[in-house]
Amino acid sequence: MKKYFAFLRAINVGGTTIVKMTDLKKMFESFGLENVQTYIQTGNVIFESQEGNSSALEERIERQLEEVWGKRIRLFVRTMREVVAMADECPYHPKDGETAYVAILQKRPDKKTVQALMALCSEADDFVVKGKEAYALRIDREKSIFSNHLIEKTLGVSGTTRNLTTIKKLAEKYN
Predict the structure, then answer these.
(1) Were both Cys, which of 77, 95, 109, 164 would link to 155 (CB 3.0–4.6 Å)?
(2) pLDDT of 6 above 90
(3) Which architecture does CATH list for 88-174?
């Protein structure tokens, strides 16, 4: 059995798709996934599966969620090793008043779109892309342009964003 994390996009944020974590846990169990747990209300699901291909698992769970909800819910599946790497490889160590984020992307963005994101670095925001993750440091909250939508639009890739603190806690708690 391999441990995975599913990061659901736009769950319990902005009032659009409200789901109780107990219901989400039951859904994942009904999909044949094992040792299912949820972490905080933003759609973080930890589970085990015999499936060795995280992309195939991602597609299957998305299809099953769509059957249950009647609408498409994007999610991004990562292995335990990948989540630990996300936490360890973050280039930022936020100071007081700063916040670091990880945008978990559907796929690796191309060089041209990464350059477009880098062009948005400023005194208020800094960005770094590593593989299928984009890291953001919000330096000045009031002047910041950072959002998940900005990352998706600029990189041309679907994604969901988590605070670095959440990623670190997931890596520590479930590793």
Answers:
(1) 109
(2) yes
(3) 2-Layer Sandwich (3.30)
